Amino acid sequence: MAKLSDSQLVILAAAARRDDRAVHPLPRSLKTKGAALTRTLEGLIAKGLLEERAASSGAEIWREDEDGTQLMLAISEAGLKALDGGSGSTPPEPSGARKSPARPLRKAAVNEAADEPTPRPGTKLARVIALLKRRNGATIDEIVKATDWQPHSVRGAISGALRKKLGLHVISEKVEGRGRVYRIGGRG
């Protein structure tokens, strides 16, 4: 079988963990929306990994067929097998999966030696982390110069990507002559 995309894996794994195997509601972590999401779901149906079933009471409706029967989407046996390598049982939760509704950082990897999430090398976020790991840290202005981001984007990256998604402990302190300085001080 062809390799599945991240979006397809997220959809299948979420459905496999539900008692009724329903695809909807979709996980909050899923970034695919609109027409792209519809194409993704239709692709999974075409591969036989999802199937339409008569909607159970309280289930979210996928569509109605010609005779008015309300249909829901559910993971098929083939979908379950595709997730866990062929045994057909409920797959374990993917490693690195989050229990909270927060969306995982896209393309985050795990540094094997340090066992901590890191962004892809060479990205602006990696540059921000390098600046914040310096002994003297960095100011918003220094990060703006290094990344060409707006100050509000830098603050958002610090509170969102670094603190919430990567779990880094970012320390903010007022330094005379420099102003507010941010630096990474271990895991928070």
Descriptive notes:
The chain is α+β, with helices and mostly antiparallel strands and 188 residues long. It has two domains: 6-84, Arc Repressor Mutant, subunit A (Orthogonal Bundle), CATH 1.10.10.10; 117-187, Arc Repressor Mutant, subunit A (Orthogonal Bundle). 35% of the residues lie in helices and 19% in strands. It has six helices and seven strands. It has helices at 6-16, 34-46, 77-84, 124-133, 140-147, 151-165, and strands at 50-54, 63-64, 70-75, 109-111, 116-118, 168-175, 179-187. Strands 1-3-2 form a three-stranded antiparallel beta sheet. Strands 4-5 form a two-stranded antiparallel ribbon. The longest helix has 15 residues, at 151-165. It starts with 5 loop residues before the first helix and ends with a strand. Mean pLDDT is 79; it is low at 86-115.
CATH superfamily of the largest domain: Winged helix-like DNA-binding domain superfamily/Winged helix DNA-binding domain
Portion of residues within helices: 25-40%
Side by side, the strands of the main sheet go: 1-3-2
Mean pLDDT metric:
79
